[in-house]
Amino acid sequence: MKIDLRSDTVTKPTQGMLEAMMQAKIGDDVFSEDPTVNVLEERLAKMFGKQKAVFFPSGTMANQTAIKLHTNPSEQVICDKYAHIYNYESGGASFNSGVSCRLLDGDRGMFTANQVIEAINPDAFYYSQTSLVEIENTTNKGGGACWDFNEILKIKAVCDAHQLGFHLDGARLWNALVVKKETPKQYGAVFDTISVCLSKGLGCPIGSVLIGNEDIMKNAIRVRKIFGGNMRQVGYLAAAGLYALDNHIQRLDEDHVKAKDLGNFLSKQSYIKTVEPVETNIVIFELNNDVKEADFIQKLKDNNILIIGMGSNKLRIVTHLDYTNSMHDYLLSTLKGLKL
Ligand SMILES: *Cc1c(COP(=O)(O)O)cnc(C)c1O
Questions:
Q1: 3-8+251-337 shares its CATH topology with 15-247
Q2: Which residue's alpha carbon is nearest to atom 6 within ligand 1?
Q3: Beta strands 308-311 and 193-197: pairing type?
Q4: Closest approach atom of ligand 1 to CA 136
Q5: Which residues have CB under 6 Å of ligand 1?
Q6: Are 193 and 217 in contact (CB under 8 A)?
Q7: Pairing of strands 272-275, 52-56
């Protein structure tokens, strides 16, 4: 048995998803003539109560496009110090949009409306002009934590008062919606733009979607083209997305149950210092000082289990669609018998 828990992006399409993909009606999406892409985009726009949605090859490109749509070169984006757009998009915000990030010192990737107020630059020519606030739900580096929706509403009020754009990196928004019993429309009503991933918990091989109203999304397809993200007969991939929206959202609960169980189990093991609170499908834990991160990863690898290190003796496990009950049992028994 081989168990890959490095990320929820490692999943392969299920038989049902593959069949949906093979049956997709396709066309050239650069001419807006791929019927399946059009259905996916319309469905997601409607789901979030917005006017427009655009299909992207990656979440990175969807986020980078959003930043470009909201800003001009020299301006500033407010985000958490853990933000994906700052840490894991190869410095793209500065390269593609010429903006800087004002990093907030949040809690597990989440900050408060008051922190935003303090970070907005005064209206003086020698400051960078603040133009966008970006949050992530669930937080990736923050360990899959979910935002308190009331705080999001408070931040929205600050954005309105200061005429700032508000972007949601919703790569794992589906996980938050399921856990918090929230709706896409709630989020659509608050954010100007939302990116969602189909290739994480939902199990598609590829695909993200950027959602917003016509005014802000007017140039989305142009920016996607500039970034080289124009695609042709991608209805096959959009069909995977449609299948996932129908079949793979509610089941995220199963990933959350396994992650919670794993978190509880780990917190009782002698070689563990701490386990961060588990809210969704990500488990971040820290090893005791006398256990080396690389050794721990190697021992699991010797047992056909893959996880990743985050530095500072912290490790990450992500549960997903391809992580079965029997894999879960095998992982727990391996962890129990681990000689370190
Ligand atoms: C995975 C992820 C993305 C986008 O990732 P891609 O690999 O480019 O699709 C964006 N934001 C967060 C928080 C993520 O976890």
A1: no
A2: 59
A3: unpaired
A4: 13
A5: 58-60, 63, 84, 136, 140, 169, 171, 197, 199-200, 208
A6: yes
A7: unpaired
pLDDT digits (tens, 9 = 90+) for 17-65: 999 999 999 999 999 999 999 999 999 999 999 999 999 999 999 999 9
Spacing, Cα 59 to ligand 1 middle (Å): 5
- pLDDT of 340 reads 80
Atom of ligand 1 nearest to the CA of 200: 1
Alpha helices in the chain (DSSP H): 15-22, 35-47, 59-70, 84-87, 92-97, 113-119, 149-161, 173-180, 184-190, 214-217, 220-226, 235-247, 252-267, 293-302, 325-337
Instruction: Give the tens place of pLDDT for each residue, 293-328.
Output: 999 999 999 999 999 999 889 999 999 999 999 999
pTM attached to this predicted model: 0.97
How far apart are the CA of 122 and the centre of ligand 1, in A? 32
Please answer whether residues 104 and 79 qualify as being in contact, where contact means their C-beta atoms are separated by less than 8 angstroms.
yes
89 CA distance to ligand 1 middle (Å) = 8
Determine the atom of ligand 1 nearest the C-alpha atom of 208.
9
Nearest Cα residue to atom 5 of ligand 1: 59
Which residue minimizes the CA distance to atom 3 of ligand 1? 59
Fold exhibited by the domain 15-247: Aspartate Aminotransferase; domain 2 (3.40.640)
Q: Contacts for 287-293 with beta carbons within 8 Å, 24 or more apart?
A: 287/313, 287/314, 287/315, 289/313, 291/340
Q: How far is CA 225 from the centre of its chain?
A: 22
Nearest protein CA to atom 2 of ligand 1, as residue: 171
Does the domain at 3-8+251-337 match CATH 3.90.1150.10? Answer given as: yes
238 in Cβ contact with 201 (< 8 Å) = no
Which one, of 197, 221, 205, lies nearest residue 17 by Cα?
Answer: 205
Boundaries of every domain in the chain: 3-8+251-337, 15-247
- Give CA–CA dist 263/147, Å, rounded: 20
> Which 3 state secondary structure label does DSSP give 132?
strand
Could you tell me the distance, in angstroms and rounded to a whole number, from the CA of residue 57 to the centre of ligand 1? 11
